[in-house]
């Protein structure tokens, strides 16, 4: 019974905390909206469009000048932010180096196939098959005696050219004797 009561109490407290958190978030969102409206009312006066063309062109020129100045400010703040981020990164690296307590863990050898390494590097989305044996040429074993005899005979065209004409017949006659 005590456990059930403690569990019920815990759940009741959690639900109460969640309800408080939800109301706080809603209050913050409303406060941000009001702050945004106040800022816009202060910095962006209501736009009154003039009737004549000359006044409208002047208004456009003023708006363009304002846009340029805001863009320059935005660029300057971005550069400052990048600079401070870089400095912060450098300082944190120096702090890390000064502590000097970092120990490199001993590396262990892991046997992985080429496919497993590519899958680990490229992710499981890429299906890469790296069968290295597929690209190799097949090599024949030792030639048999028949193949050696055929190779010794040589090219059949040469034999025919040697035997053609009177010289070839003469050679065959001399060889026959």
UniProtKB/TrEMBL annotation:
<protein>
    <recommendedName>
        <fullName>Troponin I, fast skeletal muscle</fullName>
    </recommendedName>
</protein>
<comment type="function">
    <text>Troponin I is the inhibitory subunit of troponin, the thin filament regulatory complex which confers calcium-sensitivity to striated muscle actomyosin ATPase activity.</text>
</comment>
<comment type="subunit">
    <text>Binds to actin and tropomyosin.</text>
</comment>
<keyword id="KW-0007">Acetylation</keyword>
<dbReference type="GO" id="GO:0003779">
    <property type="term" value="F:actin binding"/>
</dbReference>
<feature type="coiled-coil region">
    <location>
        <begin position="22"/>
        <end position="101"/>
    </location>
</feature>
<comment type="similarity">
    <text>Belongs to the troponin I family.</text>
</comment>
<dbReference type="Pfam" id="PF00992">
    <property type="entry name" value="Troponin"/>
</dbReference>
<keyword id="KW-0175">Coiled coil</keyword>
<dbReference type="InterPro" id="IPR050875">
    <property type="entry name" value="Troponin_I"/>
</dbReference>
<dbReference type="InterPro" id="IPR038077">
    <property type="entry name" value="Troponin_sf"/>
</dbReference>
<keyword id="KW-0009">Actin-binding</keyword>
<dbReference type="GO" id="GO:0005861">
    <property type="term" value="C:troponin complex"/>
</dbReference>
<dbReference type="GO" id="GO:0060048">
    <property type="term" value="P:cardiac muscle contraction"/>
</dbReference>
<dbReference type="GO" id="GO:0003009">
    <property type="term" value="P:skeletal muscle contraction"/>
</dbReference>
<dbReference type="InterPro" id="IPR001978">
    <property type="entry name" value="Troponin"/>
</dbReference>
<keyword id="KW-0514">Muscle protein</keyword>
